[in-house]
Amino acid sequence: MNSIQTLKETILHLEEKLLQSHTRTSSEQLEELLADDFLEFASSGQVWVRDDCLGEGGVGVVSMKIYDFEIRQLAPEVILATYRVFDEHRVSNTIRSSIWKKENGNWKMSFHQGTCTKS
């Protein structure tokens, strides 16, 4: 398996981990996955920073599935992930993008954006 495929699987695993309830409600796990400079433009229109995500209850429980996942390497230790998500509760789709940076040997999400789609 080539390195870009391995990298794609690693980042997909991390994105999926961020959709799991036990991760989303754990400040400790979110601290491990979100960079200090984390910024999100949510599909709801809200803007979030890392500290907003680390309080009681974390970022909330969701039921979402990732599809059409791709990555683009922007620099040796910076990855852009693009994908779509189906939200099973809202019965809606969003287009997502994330920037992951490798810090001290660990991948951390630095930026995330969700955009609602019509289908």
UniProtKB/TrEMBL annotation:
InterPro entries: DUF4440, NTF2-like_dom_sf. Gene3D superfamilies: 3.10.450.50. Pfam families: DUF4440. Transmembrane segments: none annotated. Residues 11-109 form the DUF4440 domain. It comes from the Bacteria. This is RNAse H.
